[in-house]
Design goal:
By secondary structure, the protein is α/β, with parallel strands linked by helices. The protein has helices at about 15-30, 60-70, 80-85, 105-115, 155-180, 195-200, and strands at about 35-40, 50-55, 95-100, 120-125, 135-140, 150-155, 185-190. Strands 3-4-7 form a three-stranded parallel β-sheet, covered by helices on one side. The protein has a two-stranded antiparallel sheet with strand order 1-2. Strand 3, helix 4 and strand 4 form a beta-alpha-beta unit.
């Protein structure tokens, strides 16, 4: 998912996490003698980061550097449903990396399109998406989907509703992943390679 929300302000943190994740996966694939490929999507499949399966050493590191420098302007990741067309017919281990703030019917369609593969949904969330360190005050908020800015009077009650929305979203995603018999990996904050390892060993 290379839509604008993945470049969440004030820092491109989730994009950095995606780049670190990509670099690590590519290195692991090369070390195991497997191929590595990458499909990046916003409103379209992006040709500038499309990487057909390769066993070339360093391909993922080069791609990760490109990802860190990307300008994410696509309003949505609707092209994720087309990503499966680039995965090939042979069953593969596929990591679907997104913030999963897409409408749930679209998430369902994307998961169904990749059902042939061994699919691991990777949910990237930045803690700043769902809360602020201050308890009360006037804050400026930014909607990455629309680009709209608005002022809010931040207060404990609003923070409570914000966190409740996060919990509801997590529950809805877990329910959907469960229907597809998928075990998601949540990364909230910086990339942690050990957490990925624990996910597969649990």
């Amino acid at each position: 998912d290379l839509s604008a929300p993945m470049g969440f302000a004030p820092t491109p943190r989730m994009l950095e996490v995606l780049a670190d994740f990509t670099d690590t996966l590519g290195w692991s694939a090369w070390r195991s003698g497997d191929s590595f490929g990458f499909v990046g999507c916003d409103t379209d499949v992006r040709p500038d980061v499309l990487q057909p399966p390769t066993r070339a050493r360093g391909a993922a590191a080069t791609l990760a550097a490109t990802l860190r420098a990307l300008d994410l302007a696509g309003e949505s990741a609707r092209a994720l449903e087309e990503a499966a067309l680039h995965l090939g017919r042979q069953r593969a281990l596929v990591f679907l990396v997104s913030d999963f703030h897409l409408p749930l019917p679209q998430v369902d369609a994307v998961l169904a399109s990749m059902a042939h593969h061994e699919l691991v949904p990777v949910v990237l969330w930045d803690p700043l998406e769902f809360g602020l360190s201050i308890r009360r005050g006037l804050v400026r908020t930014y909607d990455p989907e629309s680009g709209a800015m608005r002022l809010l009077w931040w207060r404990p009650a609003l923070q409570g509703r914000w966190l409740a929305a996060q919990h509801q979203r997590r529950a809805a995603l877990l329910q959907m992943f469960g229907r597809h018999r998928l075990k998601p990996l949540f990364i909230e904050g910086d990339f942690d390679a050990d957490a990925v390892t624990r996910h597969f060993h649990s």
